[in-house]
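User: Can you recover a sequence for this backbone? Please restate the input before giving your answer.

Assistant: Of course. Working from this structure:
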């Protein structure tokens, strides 16, 4: 049994799945407590699950074995749920090199030892962002630094993990950071005063050089848990400081022994994490998975068709779902109301729509922005883009000329979509059919994950299936699960026959 804390738009669905699997959900939010006939403890979790900043999926971090135990629960809601190990989990201490200095901080290329086929981690060397206010020394391009991850970032976003040159030990009851004294973060002043009094009676003081930050769950914890929480944080702080120190960093002495900040010797850079108290995983949910999560949520409370699909689109759409479900009890067998959602939140004719082309290795490539020329009630959206000249169209072997128009026909829930290229005079220059996870048309972007294999139709009418070898390599590397790859091959075969 694993203790899990869940937050965000997928909380109810994941709570239902976790409880069904025999795990314990702790520190539950008030809505979760209302929806489930279950006991929710206040013990520190083994795993913390949070919705990603753009609502497309979740990140889980915590004890390595516990993260492994819940990973399958996060990914078995549909074939298009994809997971990647987090190379920069919160709390990890890493070495890196400053590659760029910006107005408020520096970009750091991190040495994680990840990003290759053996690990299954997202491709590429991760970068982090180090605010100048979180490091004592002045940093410049080319400097070597040792930093701690404050907040990670999903691989499919353009955000960088946030870093710090100051060591901190996280804990769900109490955290330790450099400084002195004690601070209580509680939901009310009265609760804060009560907890402060309890801490004074128990003489729970942090060690010299550290400040204790007691978190909201500590308010409901018993004296044994409070004592154990501080003891565990002290032990973790000692281990982390010992691992990070001895690095030759600026200020590495008895009074400032955290071992973070500028490194005085480039040869001391390490290619793997210095310390990683927690493991992490990022899980992206596709359309099929979101509807699977709808089914799980429906076992606990009224849930409209497409609940998670709409909520993932925008903050306004998420609030609209809450209002709709509060006012009426939606029929579980109703169709997903795409026309209603697009009328209310977009996209509409004339809007700009981006095409977000995900990759099975976790990356996201924006294919460009076009103008919506048509929206139909069945979930069809047509987007046109004017092309620049130069190069050739992938797979078609046709020169790309200035003034060409690309017409992309997207349909909500379909495992493929075609893009037809036309010249200024309307002559068809070829059609490229992309095989992908079921398309989702959000207010500002169409989103899917590319499944590599595609079908092309050239100007002379010849049809060819391409990139089966790339799909096979992705399966071998562990990026594309075999059931998803088999679906992609099936879709490609049907398209090849139809064209």
């Amino acid at each position: 049994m694993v203790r899990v804390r869940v937050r965000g738009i997928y909380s109810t669905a994941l709570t239902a799945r976790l409880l069904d699997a025999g795990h314990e959900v702790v520190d539950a939010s008030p809505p979760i407590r209302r929806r489930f006939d279950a006991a929710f403890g206040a013990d520190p979790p083994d795993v913390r699950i949070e919705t990603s900043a753009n609502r497309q999926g979740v990140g889980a971090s915590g004890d390595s074995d516990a993260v492994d135990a819940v990973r399958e629960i996060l990914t078995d809601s549909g074939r298009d749920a994809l997971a990647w190990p987090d190379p920069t989990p919160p709390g990890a201490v890493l070495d890196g090199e400053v590659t760029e200095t910006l107005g408020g901080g520096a970009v750091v290329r991190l040495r994680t030892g990840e990003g290759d086929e053996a690990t299954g981690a997202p491709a590429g060397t991760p970068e982090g962002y180090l605010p100048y206010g979180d490091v004592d020394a002045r940093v410049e391009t080319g400097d070597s630094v040792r930093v701690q991850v404050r907040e990670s970032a999903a691989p499919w976003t353009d955000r960088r993990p946030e870093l710090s040159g100051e060591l901190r030990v996280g804990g769900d009851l109490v955290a330790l950071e450099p400084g002195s004294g004690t601070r209580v973060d509680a939901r009310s002043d009265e609760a804060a005063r009560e907890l402060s009094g309890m801490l004074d009676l128990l003489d729970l003081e942090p060690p010299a050089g550290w400040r204790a930050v007691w978190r909201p769950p500590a308010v409901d914890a018993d004296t044994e848990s409070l004592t154990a929480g501080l003891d565990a944080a002290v032990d973790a702080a000692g281990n982390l400081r010992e691992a990070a120190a001895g690095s030759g960093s600026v200020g590495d002495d008895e009074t400032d022994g955290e071992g973070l900040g500028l490194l005085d010797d480039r040869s001391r850079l390490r290619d793997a994490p210095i310390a990683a108290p927690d493991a992490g995983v990022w899980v992206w949910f596709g359309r099929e998975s979101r509807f699977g999560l709808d089914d799980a949520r429906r076992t606990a409370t009224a849930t409209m068709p497409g609940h998670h699909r709409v909520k993932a689109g925008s903050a306004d759409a998420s609030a609209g779902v809450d209002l709709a479900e509060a006012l009426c009890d939606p029929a579980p067998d109703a169709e997903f109301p795409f026309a209603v959602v697009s009328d209310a939140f977009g996209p509409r004719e004339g809007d700009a729509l981006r095409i977000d082309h995900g990759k099975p290795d976790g990356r996201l490539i924006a294919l460009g922005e076009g103008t919506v020329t048509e929206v139909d009630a069945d979930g069809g959206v047509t987007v046109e883009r004017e092309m620049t000249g130069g190069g050739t169209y992938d797979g078609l072997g046709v020169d790309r000329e200035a003034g060409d128009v690309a017409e992309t026909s997207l349909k909500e829930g379909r495992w493929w979509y075609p893009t037809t290229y036309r010249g200024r005079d309307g002559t068809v220059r070829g059609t490229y059919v992309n095989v992908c996870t079921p398309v989702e048309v959000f207010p500002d972007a169409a989103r899917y994950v590319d499944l590599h294999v595609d079908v092309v139709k050239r100007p002379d009418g010849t049809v060819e299936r391409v990139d089966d070898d790339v799909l096979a390599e992705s399966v071998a590397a562990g990026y594309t699960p075999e059931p998803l790859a088999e679906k992609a091959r099936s879709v490609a075969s049907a398209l090849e026959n139809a064209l």
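That completes the design. The chain has three domains: 1-81+285-336, 93-277, 352-498.
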